Amino acid sequence: MNLMIWVWLGAIVAFGIVELLTEGMVSVWFVAGALAALAASMLDAAVGIQMLVFAGVSAAALAVSRPLVRQFWNKPGVPTNADRVIGAVARVTEDVNNERASGAVYVDGKTWTARSAGGEVIPAGARVKIQRIEGVKLLVNLIEQTEVVK
How do the domains of the chain map onto residue ranges? Predict the structure, then answer.
């Protein structure tokens, strides 16, 4: 049996395993190319022709299917309510102290657990700007501090 038949069978298996182990489509086109090259090998085509068949079919499969795959996989993300608070101004309702793992802010009608993005303690009553979300906590920066009447 022709050695190249085994080479192309190995390539099909290897590219197939890589495809199964990756999240995105990265090697399925090479599986198609290797299948075509295997067929060329079985027809006793020269190794150079087999390589050209592999490259040509892989490129053609990529050119034809990639735009379709992109259309299905690259759906725009739907912003959640949580995404809307990034960049908003909030009022600190409980001192934000990263060392004590405490702090809360009120924004958009909800109270959120908060941590200081810069690490400083932010007293209750201060106004902060929300920088980002990590898990269920807002990371905030102090905008201004106001006197709190108790």
Answer: 3-73, 81-144
Rounded-to-integer distance, Cα 60 and Cα 10, Å = 21
Estimate to the nearest angstrom the gap between the alpha carbon of 140 and the chain centroid.
Answer: 24
Q: Where are the beta strands (DSSP E) in 8-124?
A: 89-97, 102-107, 110-116
Residues 109, 96, 102: CA angle, nearest 5 degrees: 95
For the chain, 150 residues long, the average pLDDT of each consecutive 10-residue run is: 89 93 83 95 94 96 81 65 83 95 93 94 94 91 65
Number of other residues whose CB lies within 10 A of the CB of residue 112: 20
Phi, psi of 113 (to 5 degrees): -70, 140
Of 149, 95, 147, 137, give the one whose Cα is nearest residue 120: 95
Q: Which of 72, 81, 85, 90 is nearest to 127 (CA)?
A: 90
Whether the CB-CB separation of 122 and 105 falls below 8 Å is answered with: no
- Tell me, which fold does domain 81-144 have in CATH? OB fold (Dihydrolipoamide Acetyltransferase, E2P) (2.40.50)
